[in-house]
Write a structure and sequence with these properties.
A 5-stranded antiparallel beta sheet has the order 1-5-4-3-2, with helices on one face. A hairpin with a 4-residue loop joins strand 3 and strand 4. The chain is 11% helix and 33% strand. It contains 1 helix and 5 strands. The two termini are 29 Å apart.
Length: 108
């Protein structure tokens, strides 16, 4: 399962990392980070991984384009390592309060 990517304008890597990590670390996520240069701009990719739930949150922070984040989950193992392999990770606030999946954006 892959969730919609959300875009935002924050380009301060430390600020983004700190804000997201403060919510995910208590849930058992570990963090990985990578940087690369594209068209002279340094882009940072930050990943939070949770093996128990097969979940990954990925964020790209960049000074030249909108930054973005997304969520994906893989099928959980049915080998007994998790109590219910059909249960997705519940992340409070994962979906913004204003989000309405029944509203389709207008094509302009």
């Amino acid at each position: 399962m892959v969730a919609t990517r959300y875009f935002f304008e924050e380009a301060d890597v430390d600020k983004v990392r700190s804000a997201i990590d403060s919510h995910l670390k208590p849930l058992g996520f570990t963090i990985m980070e990578d940087q690369y240069v594209f068209n002279g701009n340094t882009r940072t990719e930050i990943y939070w991984l949770n093996e128990k739930y097969g979940a990954t949150i990925s964020i790209q922070v960049s000074p030249d384009v909108d930054s973005s984040y997304g969520y994906r989950a893989v099928d959980l193992l049915s080998d007994g390592s998790v109590s219910d392999p059909t249960q997705l990770l519940e992340l409070p606030g994962r979906t913004p309060a204003w989000f309405d999946p029944s509203v389709v954006p207008l094509n302009e």
